[in-house]
Amino acid sequence: MDVLESGVGEFRFTDPDEVRSWMRTHKGREFVDKTVSEAEAVGRFVADGDYVSFDFSSFTRGPLVLIREIIRQGRRDLWYCAKFTLMESTLLAAAGACSRIDVGFMGLGDTLNRAVEEGKIKVSEWTNGTLTLRHLAGAMGVPFLPTRALLGTDTLKYSGAKVVKDPFGGKPIALVPAVNPDVGLIHVHQADVYGNARCFGPGVSPLETAAASKKVIISTDEIIDHDDIRKDPAKTTIPYYMVDAVVYAPFGAYPGGLPGVYEMDFEHFAGYYAQERQGNLKAYLDKYVYSVGSHLEMLEQRVGLARLNDLRRRATVKEGYR
Amino acid sequence: MDVLESGVGEFRFTDPDEVRSWMRTHKGREFVDKTVSEAEAVGRFVADGDYVSFDFSSFTRGPLVLIREIIRQGRRDLWYCAKFTLMESTLLAAAGACSRIDVGFMGLGDTLNRAVEEGKIKVSEWTNGTLTLRHLAGAMGVPFLPTRALLGTDTLKYSGAKVVKDPFGGKPIALVPAVNPDVGLIHVHQADVYGNARCFGPGVSPLETAAASKKVIISTDEIIDHDDIRKDPAKTTIPYYMVDAVVYAPFGAYPGGLPGVYEMDFEHFAGYYAQERQGNLKAYLDKYVYSVGSHLEMLEQRVGLARLNDLRRRATVKEGYR
Amino acid sequence: MTKDDTEAEVMIALCARLLEDQKTAFIGFGMPQVAAILAQRIQAPQLVQVFEFGAIGPTPLTPFVRNTMGGPSNCYRSIAWTSMNQIFAQAQIGLMDYGVLGATQIDIYGNVNSTMLGEDYQRPKKRFPGSGGANEVASYCWKTVIIMMHEKRRFVPRVDFVTSPGYLDGMPGARERAGLPADTGPWRVVTSKALFGFDEDSKKMTLLGVLRGLAPEQVVAEMDFKPLVARRVEELPPPTEQELRILREEIDPARTIIGRTAKA
Amino acid sequence: MTKDDTEAEVMIALCARLLEDQKTAFIGFGMPQVAAILAQRIQAPQLVQVFEFGAIGPTPLTPFVRNTMGGPSNCYRSIAWTSMNQIFAQAQIGLMDYGVLGATQIDIYGNVNSTMLGEDYQRPKKRFPGSGGANEVASYCWKTVIIMMHEKRRFVPRVDFVTSPGYLDGMPGARERAGLPADTGPWRVVTSKALFGFDEDSKKMTLLGVLRGLAPEQVVAEMDFKPLVARRVEELPPPTEQELRILREEIDPARTIIGRTAKA
Fold first, then answer.
1. Using CB atoms within 10 A as the burial measure, which of A121, C4, C72, D79 is most buried?
2. Number of CB pairs < 8 Å for B and D?
């Protein structure tokens, strides 16, 4: 099983035994109340230089509350995993919070593209699917998983994948290395105080992201009784022992939507696009991040209850989201 | 990435491109009514010599209706995948239907063990986990998946796994080959006529088994409207295009139970154990398989409505099973 | 193109016509979504759309809501809701008949670039968003349809960066030799002016049809390489009244997608 | 052993005492299930049981229902219901503190045989059911507890077949060299007469405790190899009244599990 080709991209890889050792000692199996403010969660669990992963999208069930808090606290040199990414990678880059990106899809608008052209951001090339597969490998505790994507392309060349000859069938196949992010950020519909969490609707990879990540911050639109979790165990997306912090954050996905609960704020995104095109994301960040002390203050002072009510009102499709 | 060790066990492996080609041409994307009797399903989709896989257990949500029909129709030389297996592998062996077994767990009682001792059944050695992982590989369309199980043991030596040096981290790791069974047999709680199927409760690998198998027979305790499937898409365990036949079979898991619907029949199993210990499974098969023409006849003439009602009555725990 | 059709409307209508009923189709973000909905409203009501975040078989509500690919309108009444690893597994195992993708740049062998222009990967002349899920779709689906504006700079002899695989260097069996699934590859390229396929032997892009009112030469003149030309080039009817009515009144009245025109 | 305790009751009680509250424990079929429920009823109410078919954290209803490991009683009020690949992934990544397994035969290095006796794999002298999920549990969990009848033929110098890995040949780092997860391996062996651990350096099975009323020599006499003996061998109290009451009245009044005695 010779290595036929190796991508030249730099990549984050942690030996599975090192990951196991972390999971043994840092992921408490105790039933303790993990609810904290977004400020405390980010303060305790996101450090400069961390590799950060996110689920699912800035438009849909994304932990935007946590992204804004990371920016507010001035984190630097994050290595950001841009799988199914949109607004949040752009905001992190505009704020100077991240210096490296694993590219699945780059962001919303040209800000990030320009930053790469100017050499301000270093990138490695992947795809949405292979970045998600790397999380699955990380979540399975194996060093790699095989895939028939990437092959034959420059995407592979600038990734960290390797091509080997399959020892069973003899054909070339790509192996992608596991990734175990330092931090996983996931917004959910419901969680109990211990961190048992439920996401409704399709999703990119909430469970893989939670299982693979060394530190996991959940933001949730609702806190539910632990007993409710036990009444419908099939609904549990993430078990509590994978979770380090639970941030109670109604409208935590704002300006994105939470399916069945509130719609995305189109007007907000229109304003964002306009400022992004003008290269004026500083003003956007000032308004929605730096000039407010918390998510709650942002919602109250920059969005307002009438708008929030309207976003909830527009979420008329409830089927399947409970 | 050298091969450090290769198990000597024979194993079924199908080139992923051959599997793809099958999936392209044999798995119809048409919305057609696939409901057939168990006799027709087995008649059309199970052939002598097939590799057969099963989910979940003879005690819980197993497709026993299909196993009995396979025996009734006198199939021969099946290669049976004994992952989380119990009664059904024993019955297949006692009936002379299978000649090879991939061992996860052998069966219920000593019948199968004796058959192996006498050389009547050939075996390869695996584990519940690695057989299930082989189905996942088959369901992913990749030739193998890595695992840190099997290593260092005779189980590996008599399996078809290979040990390689991980090209990322450098440690030895086992690779298990994909399996794409000729036939997958799965009992479900609910299905529509197209084959969209729902299983409730934990399960071994209903989706992996359906996705990996070339031919899939679903037996179901209920037929539901297609529209109901679309009202709660998160509940769909198996999408219709993986399914070849839908057998409407209330009490299809009998004598096992269907969680939330009916309990297993303890008295029946007690009788089975007694006959198994006496080496008299021929009498058991005569009574429950050969002397009756169908599942319905077996239920009516050998079990009776009073017993069936009682098994339903005992299933008082409904939480989570709908 | 009739005078008031937009280029987007033409591309979308031409693409929608390619999608058969009761087939599975892996649908990319934006224009492919609108094309798939249009196909469902006309000839393919039971087209099984599949999205990379895991929705299978939705019947999207209209008006189409731009951006919320994962939202309730777009995922309405699906057959199943799964996840990205699950849905790419299904594509990898050969269950997806079509893949429909947008692209920034393409070459004669159907290789797609959505990553960058220039020589130096770390300092590109121009950087684009990257693969997203396009690499997987182009690798796994049986028939990939690529939908793009017909602009000279988008049809280049050799892309600067192969983001998603076409027929690679065009040599027979090049995809299979690389390890890609057999018998896959770009099947059609739909533009605002024409429809292309790929020659079975040479794997070169081949002009199959041009929009009514255009000559093949006009179409080829706006490409930076010379495609092969089919012996008989089909005349492609512009969007029908029915197609336009559905697009404009039902699917995208705000014209966020169908209003787009070439920048050139 | 008090006169009317069964061997099964002793093994189950000794095993249950080892399980800490608010830890995860991968629980095998049969006796380990009963031990885990007993632990939950005494010192470990929030022990998170995990089963190989994917149930996480159930609070089983009693009476214990033999055989229906996957049924509603045993999976009652779980924290999550998943699948086999998912739950073994969680074990492989290091989230499972304990694994509790039954075994047919064991050797001085804790290697477990549940496959066969004899030399010829295809024609064994005696065939057993095989690994089930035991190989994974013994490979992945941090501390594996093996529970077995104390019979001479079960404690052999070298098992005929290594189904599930102990410390292999006992050489330092043997498990890690084979590629198994670091710092794992058999932690305790619980029998109807004694409790064993494994010596940190030699990896040999070591007698840690004997049931009240038994001498270490009596225990060792019923083994086909000589284990190491701890400097201070603990006296293990037999099942308490509370343990017996819960076992006999609440968990297994039909005595399907707790009624078992050695065949020897």
1. C72
2. 196
B232 CA to chain A: closest CA distance, Å? Answer: 4
State yes or no: is C200 an active-site residue: no
In a domain? residue A322: no
Q: How is residue A165 written in tokens?
A: 């000859």
Q: Does pTM top 0.80 for this prediction?
A: yes
Contact at CB, D81 and B136, closer than 8 angstroms: no
Could you report the per-residue pLDDT of B136-177, keeping only the tens digit for each?
999 999 999 999 999 999 999 999 999 999 999 999 999 999
Mean of pLDDT values over C207-216: 97
B267 to B271, B303, B314, D13, D257: CA distances (angstroms): 6, 11, 13, 29, 17
In angstroms, the CA B73 to CA D61 distance is 40
Residue D182 and residue A17: Cβ atoms within 8 Å? Answer: yes
DSSP secondary structure code for residue A240 in this structure: G
Check residue D3 and give its pLDDT: 58
Amino acid at C13: A
Residue C264 has what pLDDT?
39
Confidence of residue D1 (pLDDT cuts 50, 70, 90): very low
Is residue B322 in some structural domain?
no
Three-state SS string over chain C comes to CCCCCCHHHHHHHHHHHHCCCCCEEEECCCHHHHHHHHHHHCCCCCCEEECCCCEECCCCCCCCCCCCCCCCCCCCCCCEECEHHHHHHHHHCCCCCEEEEECCEECCCCCEECCEECCCCCCCCEECCCCCCHHHHHHHCCEEEEECCCCHHHECCCCCCCCECCCCCCCCCHHHHHCCCCCCCEEEEECCCEEEEECCCCCCEEEEEEECCCCHHHHHHCCCCCCEEEEEEEEECCCCHHHHHHHHHHHCCCCCCCCCCCCC
Angle at C35 between CA C32 and CA C38, to 5 degrees: 155
CATH number at residue B292: 3.40.1080.10
Of D247, C244, C204, B143, nearest to A146 by C-alpha is: B143
* Facing residue for D79 by CB, picked from A27, A140, A236: A236
Average pLDDT for A200-208? 96
In the three-class reduction of DSSP (H, G, I as helix; E, B as strand; rest coil), residue A134 is classed as helix
What confidence score (pLDDT) does residue C69 get?
A: 85
Residues spanned by the domain of B251: 3-314
Is the predicted ipTM greater than 0.90, yes or no?
A: yes
Count of domains in chain B?
Answer: 1
Say if residue B205's pLDDT is above 90: yes
User: Does B321 map to a domain?
Assistant: no
Burial A107-129 (b: 16+ CB within 10 A, else e): bbbbbbbebbbeeebebbbbbbb
- CATH 3.40.1080.10 correct for C7-251: yes
- Tell me whether chains C and A touch (3+ CB pairs under 8 A): yes
Which tokens belong to A104?
A: 């699945």
Q: Which of C52, C136, C151, C243 is catalytic?
A: C52
Residue with tokens 């399709």: A202
Q: What is the rounded average pLDDT of the residues C53-57?
A: 97
Instruction: State pLDDT tens for residues A21-65.
Output: 999 999 999 999 999 999 999 999 999 999 999 999 999 999 999
The minimal CB distance from D163 to the residues B128, B133, B153 is found for B153
Task: Judge whether A320 lies within some domain.
Answer: no
- Asked whether the beta carbons of A27 and A242 are under 8 A apart, the reply is yes
3-state class of A3 per DSSP? strand
